[in-house]
Amino acid sequence: MMSPLKSGWYRLPGLLRYALQRLGMGAVLCVGVTFVSFALTQVVPGDPVTANLGERAAADPEIVALYRERYGLDKPLPAQYARYLTRLLQGDLGISQQTHRPVATDLATYMSATLELAIVAMVLAMAAGMALGIVAAVWRDGWPDQVIRVVSLAGVSVPTFWLALVCLYLFFFKFNLSPGVGRLGPGTPAPEALTGLYTLDAALRGQWGLLREALSYIALPALVLATYTTGIVTRFTRAAMLDSLGHDYVRAARAKGLPAHTVILRHALRPALAAIITVSGMAFGRMLAGAVLVESVYSWPGLGLYAYRSALTLDLQAIMGVSLIIAVIYILVNLAVDILYAVIDPRIRY
Amino acid sequence: MSFNRSIKARSRLALAIPLGLFALAAQPALAQDTLVVDANFQLKTADPARAFEPTASLVLHPVYETLVTFEGSDVTRVVPLLANVPEISEDVKTFTFTLNPEATFADGSPVEVSDVVFSLERARDLKGSPSYLMRGVSVAAGEAPGTIVLTTEAPDPALPFKLTNLALSILDAETLQANGGTATPEDGAERFLAETSIGSGPYTLTKFDTSSEVILEANESYWGEAPAYDRIVVRNVNSNAQQMNVARGASQIALNLRPDQVGSISDKVTVISGPAADMGFLFMNGNPEVSELSVNPDLREAVRYGIDYAGIIDFIGEGAVQPAGIIPTMIEGALPTEQVPTRDLERAKAALARSGLSDPTLTISYAADLAKYGIAFADIAAKIQSDLADVGITVELNPESVQANLDNYRGGTLEMSVQWWGGTPHPSNSLPFTSGKLVGLRAGWAEGGSPELEELASRAEVASDADERVALYRDWQTKLNEVGPFVPLFQPPVTLVGSTEIAPLEYNPMWTVDLSDVRKASE
To answer: In this complex, which of A50, A66, A188 lies closest to B28 when CB atoms are compared?
Structure first.
């Protein structure tokens, strides 16, 4: 006879069961990520003491001993890792050696900046990429298609760092269409944090002037960050749409006299969405990774810059925190993509 | 066709989103009395006693004050600030300061002897990076009211110069203690100090974000001369954006432009360019267990005279200088610049011939991922490789990560390396280059390596008479150049760029620019 727990489990909707299973696997994966990142930080040559203490302090055994004790570096490696895991279970990611603050606090601050940039860039890339892909497919081999193919190829080919600099030069320096670098103007107080996303927080609090300022600052870096993804989404949308448009059911829909936009957006686009969502999930992960270059040029205080500084100063707790949070995001995005499959394609059941 | 129109309309709508975002873009209006400064942040903490990064000195110098300070760019003598210039005992071990009775903290409370004693003891006993400044120094209230007596274990004429360091700032002890401040490594006041400031300077700290910006507001009740700006915003901005910001007037000061970046905007800004008080140097390890080649005195001479120093200075750019000795040019005791070594290929080749080595190969190690003042160590190493090839010495490049390079350097295991040195602008700051001392040991030069040099160093360190001190430091450097494993290469250029809205800036090696002293051009 089935145990109540087991029978309760099987009474859950299939999709929920699937999501819970994936989350459980994700948790195991996260532990694996902490182990790998811990091991790698130990393999990298260099001593955090050297990286973080001044010349004279690093030559003082008493100061060095205190430093090692403060950050738990005086313990054997297995003990250090066990201590990290124990604290992680309590939500404590340790103290950053570069900022002297809890890593969890740092991640909340920097992650929200990166997420805001990535989400806006993703919205722009999806909107523009899908629109361009549809237009290119509908006008296959016509001049709009030719132009869009060249533009999308340029989008995926152009180096992000170079594009960021050129755009800053043109839109800020030359034509004054952008207010410049940063998340807000110099000295402008950030909206009181609800989500950490300035645009959303300003909107939720009804601070419309601040919302306008935040949008004006995020526009240029988000557009630059969106360029590559726009190119990718355009190409995938075009290919998927061309495939859909060639099917009998689309021809049948047209023959029935349905309006063209209904045929395109309901009958052709919907089956194409699975491929588009797949590539979008991957592109979002790449966007987070690529954000460091855009953050660097636009002085955007995000996770990329934090990770870079952590690596330079061998800030072990911060490196592990960043690795963990990136892993969590990848797992959640992939889960969301898999769930969306079921939403858009009734044939898929979990 | 309706299909085409519909799709076109939707596509246009999608494409309009990014364009619409641009429509929002406009320069937000800045408060008229705000000074905006762009810098590449190297910033960890707002606690002066823990701060040891250049950006911390820049942003906290206007907030916290020290007993004595430097005026403008002159770092050869200290001037009064919270206290007078100290009375120094004959044995140069006792320093008596008298507090300025006018001095007050931002909350209006007076700066008292107890604040000084606690602040200095805390800086010493926190055991942080700057604690070495107070090593062996005891602090006590003097017999007379308002006096503080600092006593050193050994004679230390450099102590007043060390006391200009931000780390030895005076904080409101009572408030600090009420918020976790203790004079022990367990001190817990750092987070409190990131949210507020308890100094006596012309500004107070209102925002401290190590990744994006620091905001200072004028201290309304400042006890000295009021600053020109109501507010200072120091932003973390990379050098490319700094160049555009200052040229467009979006900022008033850019601190990290390279000489080539300044050239293209020089008609829109004022530029101050000069040497920094840091020193780039080469060493050849003196430990035969590390290398039998680099200990060879003739090979060392060949290297010393084979390097194209003028070429290095040209290559680094305007503002860089070649020092004649290991003490930077603007510091008391520096060797006259007429004594700088120059390239002499004949002498270098003759020295190589004398060494008895044929086709020697040296390995130069450097931090490949590090550039200071825009100068990449990799470029300097490549230049040395090219210069020494003309002499007949093969140099193999060994790029390392900055951490690995620092570890190896501090472990004394590098055969040849380009390194960096800076610190308190006092000649004693260079004494660790003596055999048996900190930098000497890193270059494999153990105690007893040069007894004459060590004797000169110990005399120079305690010399209280200025003329005698200068003479001793010069003799010490001349000897170091003769027998030491070090080759001073360059002092990097510092380029300060200001918009035309402000008066010309002054560079100070300790805090780069005194932001509280920046004046409007119209004043």
So the answer is: A188
| C-alpha B352 chain-centroid distance | 37
Give the per-residue pLDDT at B402.
83
- Highest mean predicted confidence (pLDDT) among A64-68, B261-265, B280-284: B280-284
The 3-state secondary structure of A5-41 reads HHHHHHHCCHHHHHHHHHHHHHHHHHHHHHHHHHHHH
B134-178: pLDDT as tens digits: 999 999 999 999 999 999 998 888 999 999 999 999 999 999 999
In this structure, what token pair is assigned to residue A199? 């645009």
Instruction: State the residue for tokens 């994006």.
Output: B212
Is residue A149 over pLDDT 50?
Answer: yes
- DSSP alpha helix (H) spans, B376-465: 377-389, 402-410, 438-442, 451-462
| Residue A297 Cα, gap to closest chain B Cα (Å) | 7
What integer pLDDT is reported at residue B1 of this predicted model? 41
Q: Would strands B361-367 and B394-400 be described as parallel, antiparallel, or unpaired?
A: parallel
| Chain A residues touching B244 at Cβ < 8 A | 168-169, 172-173, 180
Measured in angstroms, the CA of A298 and the nearest CA of chain B are apart by 8
Coil/strand/helix, residue A335: helix
Half-sphere exposure of A18 (CA within 13 A, CB side): 15
Task: Please indicate if any CB of chain B lies within 8 Å of the CB of A224.
Answer: no
* Average pLDDT value for chain B: 91
3-state secondary structure string across B127-190: CCHHHHHHCCEEEEECCCCCEEEEEECCCCCCHHHHCCCHHHCECCHHHHHHCCCCCCCCCCCH
Q: Do residue B34 and residue A186 have CB atoms under 8 angstroms apart?
A: yes
Tell whether the model's pLDDT for residue A212 goes beyond 90. Answer: yes
Range B429-451 average pLDDT: 96
**Look-up: residue for tokens 């023959």?**
A255
A173–chain B nearest CA distance, Å: 6
Which residues of chain B are within 8 Å of residue A70 when distances are taken between CB atoms?
185
Q: Which amino acid is at B10?
A: R
**How far is Cα of residue B98 from the mean position of the Cα atoms in its chain?**
29
Amino acid at A61: P
pTM for the model stands at 0.85
